């Protein structure tokens, strides 16, 4: 079995936000393989998150991010179960990162179930048409794969974090979920850009 050093545990903790003992246990279980340990952590905390998913999230915070040029900004409502966690540094940092994500990545909705059905159907038609030279059963699979990639671009929870493309927004939320022991959800967001939604005055 590979030796699990203190440095490896600390690095894994920085990546996942989990406690030292849990990081050490996961690395031991993965025989020092960081990628395998990350997979184990996601599986474990994904299941824990599912168990917490039905719990009410009536606390939280509204976070704002304004781009340095002052021409774009975003608001996001992130919810948790208690005011105690809403004041937690990890939770507040998550909310700030989510507000940044809204401005930088311009998502359409929080989760794929909220995507307008007409947009989904239109994209699927486009992807099927792009594979018109393929057999029908293959066209459907190609379209499905492209549709999933499209969701990853448009749906906030499925987007890759703009500051770290190795993790999705959902992964980030699960990590804070694990650290706080509470159900954490994103309710809504808004993005503002100077000039959008207005008509320039005629010269």
UniProtKB/TrEMBL annotation:
One GO cellular component, as annotated: cytoplasm
Gene3D superfamilies, alphabetized: 1.10.286.20, DNA helicase RuvA subunit, C-terminal domain, Elongation factor Ts, dimerisation domain
Places the protein is found: Cytoplasm
UniProt keyword annotations, A-Z: Cytoplasm, Elongation factor, Protein biosynthesis
UniProt GO molecular function: translation elongation factor activity
Pfam families, alphabetized: EF_TS
Keyword S-adenosyl-L-methionine: no
Domain Translation elongation factor EFTs/EF1B dimerisation: 20-196
Ranges where the record places region Involved in Mg(2+) ion dislocation from EF-Tu: 82-85
Superkingdom of the organism of origin: Bacteria
Family: Belongs to the EF-Ts family.
Functional description taken from the UniProt entry: Associates with the EF-Tu.GDP complex and induces the exchange of GDP to GTP. It remains bound to the aminoacyl-tRNA.EF-Tu.GTP complex up to the GTP hydrolysis stage on the ribosome.
Protein name per the record: Elongation factor Ts
Source species of the chain: Singulisphaera acidiphila (strain ATCC BAA-1392 / DSM 18658 / VKM B-2454 / MOB10)
